[in-house]
């Protein structure tokens, strides 16, 4: 990719000091309008007070890409961030952009709360995404690949293959690729093929005649999905002590002529089509949700096209031909300087044994109270236990379920599963419990996006073991994270519960930050019991004493608690709230936060991803700060803290501040009733507020600025601080 010239400008119109060795931190804005005059206080439903959801989501993905330039991360982790950006962008186009294009196609141009129409949002996404994709390949080619090469990790282009490597590639192609590849010549009897979503393909321009006398034209080569996209060169053929890799695309390019004997290849260019992957199930006309989803999963592979990625050396007439086949226009075309399927480079990171280029591994700890051989039931019966993953081990929950499965005194286990994996320790324990004759009820959300197939298989496995499997409520995704265990102790029934902010998935528990509360408090357990009854049965909403649950009372109670802080501020009392979640988009909650700010409430918002609230507007949100933490671990905890006139309340939840969580999902929000646990979580929040290494502050004009330590100020990374603190405690 060519380096930027000195006259080029960044997205802010500021001159970029161009070279291939320095990239400035991105300052793209979140699709905002002109600044609001300081002497004008708008109404709280004024569109100028809201950022666009899709553009704000794209901004989060760009903050992830920024990590690839941050040399405080180890080199392979920097590459990982770049690949995560690629994967995130895939899903963004599959779901968010696909939805926009659908609304535009059907003439649904009603603006959202921010005042933007779908057409204007799509135009801005196209501009911003093209800019960032070009930047992504610039970072890969001019920063990461040279840095990896300096460490003995090489991605070899065809021009770099030695004679011995060429011979080995030829043999590999003949033995591994040729038998499974099926080129498709394009003519009236061979129309353009229906290509699978995000599959690697090549368009080939041919000259000459084939065996049937047909003159050359064009052909498509679909790369078999069974083949790895990255192949490691045998050590005997590479530089000593180095890891050398070849791209499958390079191998196919080099030997494409073998697929069309007697013909001349004028050009061979890789491309990839991203399709609409959102599932559409009519909840009012489905008798069997699992069967309906199975049909939709197949359709997902062949949805409408939304984005076309093509090698940047592809001639315009060929890219135009592809666009016409997929009914796309040039705004949907992305020319890339490298592999079109970057996320497949993840295989190299898994294959590499260069631990010196990754974050040092750590062993999740255990709270002191759990570090003995005592039964978990005995411990939890005495006191609440709060875990913070990944710094504290998720195995506690797996071990507790395993103990429950074998405990003769356990009568029943109920659990919600959203994402977990069909062969996890959690599922194994539930299967064992069912086979041991316990009453096991599992509420599985089949519609967890991109995990639908796994969850269908999981449901079948549990049903075969004798568990009662419920698919939740048709019109509402079950997103709550709950576990309820009923046990007979000393002749009476005792209830235990687990509630969390994250999924019952051991893999993500090593990468995502989440809280897990284990409790035997009668009132909390009774509330969990009522929510399960509501999911499995029918009737009016069940009363809960402490737990707030959506779609019934969570939204209204959050509004009440925010307004309570505003009332206290107007009475001259100290007021403060801290909201930490993944996304903030729901207009009524945003307006409540604006009212709180106008009353003088200090509002600290830690919003990892999408944020539609505009901070720093005089007279409206000048008491609101918004931070986004992006680091080694994915921030996933949802915590709501309210000062409450000196009687603080701290809540954990499965719900973000989004419309879907408040009105279209089953969610739970639970108070931390143990005073010491609540103080500990508040201290964790303070650590995040002090972060000046991985924290990005949202400004009123819509751009995020990475915070830096000031002169003489200590560098504080919240994640590293918590890792050290919890390791020391363990």
Automatic annotation (TrEMBL):
EC number: 2.7.4.1
Catalytic activity of the protein: [phosphate](n) + ATP = [phosphate](n+1) + ADP
Record protein name field: Polyphosphate kinase
Annotated GO biological process: polyphosphate biosynthetic process
Annotated active site: 479 (phosphohistidine intermediate)
InterPro entries linked: PP_kinase, PP_kinase_C_1, PP_kinase_middle, PP_kinase_middle_dom_sf, PPK_C_dom2, PPK_N_dom, PPK_N_dom_sf
Residue ranges of domain Polyphosphate kinase N-terminal in the record: 50-155
GO cellular component, one term: polyphosphate kinase complex
A molecular-function term among this protein's GO annotations: metal ion binding
Organism: Kushneria sinocarnis
Ranges where the Polyphosphate kinase C-terminal domain occurs: 376-539, 549-719
Binding sites annotated in the UniProt record for Mg(2+): 419, 449
PTM description: An intermediate of this reaction is the autophosphorylated ppk in which a phosphate is covalently linked to a histidine residue through a N-P bond.
Domain Polyphosphate kinase middle: 165-347
UniProt: ATP binding residues: 88, 512, 608, 636
Cofactor dependency: Mg(2+)
Keyword Nucleus part of the UniProt annotation: no
Enzyme class of the recorded protein, top EC level: transferase
Entry's family note: Belongs to the polyphosphate kinase 1 (PPK1) family.
Annotated stretches, region: Disordered: 1-38
Alphabetized UniProt keyword annotations: ATP-binding, Kinase, Magnesium, Metal-binding, Nucleotide-binding, Phosphoprotein, Transferase
Domain of life: Bacteria
Function: Catalyzes the reversible transfer of the terminal phosphate of ATP to form a long-chain polyphosphate (polyP).
């Amino acid at each position: 990719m060519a380096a930027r010239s000195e006259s080029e400008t960044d997205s802010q119109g500021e001159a970029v000091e161009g070279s291939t060795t320095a990239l400035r931190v991105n300052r793209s804005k979140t699709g905002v309008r002109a600044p609001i005059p300081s002497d004008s206080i708008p109404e709280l439903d004024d569109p100028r007070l809201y950022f666009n959801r899709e553009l704000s989501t794209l901004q989060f993905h760009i903050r992830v890409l920024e990590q690839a330039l941050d040399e405080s991360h180890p080199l392979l982790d920097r590459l990982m961030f770049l690949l995560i950006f690629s994967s995130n962008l895939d899903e963004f186009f599959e779901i968010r952009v696909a939805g926009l294009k659908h609304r535009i196609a059907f003439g649904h141009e009603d603006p959202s709360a921010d005042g933007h129409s779908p057409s204007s949002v799509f135009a801005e996404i196209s501009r911003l995404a093209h800019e960032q994709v070009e930047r992504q390949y610039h970072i890969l080619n001019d920063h990461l690949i040279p840095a990896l090469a300096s460490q003995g990790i090489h991605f070899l282009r065809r021009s770099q293959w030695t004679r011995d490597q060429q011979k080995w590639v030829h043999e590999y192609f003949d033995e591994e690729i040729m038998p499974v590849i099926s080129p498709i010549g394009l003519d009236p009897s061979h129309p353009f093929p229906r290509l699978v979503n995000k599959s690697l393909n090549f368009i080939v321009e041919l000259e000459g005649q084939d065996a049937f006398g047909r003159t050359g034209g064009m052909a498509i080569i679909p790369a078999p999905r069974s083949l790895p996209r990255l192949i490691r060169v045998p050590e005997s053929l590479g530089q000593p002590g180095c890891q050398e890799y070849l791209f499958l695309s390079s191998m196919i390019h080099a030997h494409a002529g073998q697929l069309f004997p007697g013909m001349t290849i004028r050009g061979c260019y890789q491309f990839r089509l991203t399709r609409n992957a959102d599932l559409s199930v009519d909840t009012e006309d489905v008798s069997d949700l699992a069967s309906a989803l199975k049909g939709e999963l197949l359709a997902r592979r062949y949805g409408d096209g939304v984005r076309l990625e093509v090698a940047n050396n592809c001639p315009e007439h060929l890219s135009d031909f592809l666009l016409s086949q997929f009914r796309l226009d040039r705004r949907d075309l992305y020319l890339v300087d490298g592999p079109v399927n970057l996320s497949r480079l993840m295989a190299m990171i898994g294959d590499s044994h260069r631990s010196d280029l990754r974050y040092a591994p750590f062993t999740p700890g255990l709270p002191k109270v759990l570090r003995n051989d005592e039964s978990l039931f005995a411990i939890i019966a005495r006191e609440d236990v709060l875990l913070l993953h990944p710094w504290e081990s998720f195995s506690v929950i797996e071990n507790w379920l395993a103990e429950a499965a074998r405990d003769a005194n356990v009568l029943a286990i109920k659990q919600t599963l959203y994402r977990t994996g069909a062969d996890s320790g959690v599922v194994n324990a539930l299967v064992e419990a069912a086979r041991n004759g316990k009453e096991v009820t599992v509420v599985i959300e089949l519609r967890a996006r991109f995990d639908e197939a796994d969850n269908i298989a999981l449901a079948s496995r549990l049903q075969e073991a004798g568990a009662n499997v419920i698919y939740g409520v048709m019109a509402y995704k079950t997103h709550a994270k709950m576990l309820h265990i009923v046990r007979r102790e000393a002749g009476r029934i005792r209830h235990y519960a687990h509630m969390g902010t994250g999924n019952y998935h051991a893999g993500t528990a090593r990468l995502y930050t989440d809280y897990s509360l284990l409790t035997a408090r009668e009132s909390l357990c009774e509330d969990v019991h009522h929510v399960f009854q509501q999911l499995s049965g029918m009737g009016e909403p069940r009363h809960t004493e402490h737990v707030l649950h959506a779609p019934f009372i969570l939204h209204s109670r959050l509004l009440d608690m925010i307004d309570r802080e505003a009332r206290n501020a107007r009475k001259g009392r100290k007021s403060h709230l801290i909201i930490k979640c993944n996304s903030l988009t729901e207009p009524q909650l945003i307006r409540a936060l604006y009212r709180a700010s106008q009353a003088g409430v200090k509002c600290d918002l830690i919003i990892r991803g999408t944020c539609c609230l505009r901070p720093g507007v005089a007279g409206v949100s000048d008491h609101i700060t918004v931070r986004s933490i992006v680091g080694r671990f994915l921030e996933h905890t949802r915590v709501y803290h309210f000062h409450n006139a000196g009687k603080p309340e701290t809540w954990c939840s499965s719900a973000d501040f989004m419309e879907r969580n408040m009105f279209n999902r089953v969610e739970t929000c639970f108070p931390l009733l143990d005073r010491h646990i609540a103080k500990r979580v508040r201290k964790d929040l303070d650590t995040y507020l002090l972060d000046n290494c991985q924290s990005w502050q949202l400004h009123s004009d819509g751009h995020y600025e990475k915070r830096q330590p000031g002169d003489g100020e200590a560098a504080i990374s919240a994640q590293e601080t918590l890792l050290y603190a919890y390791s020391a405690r363990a």
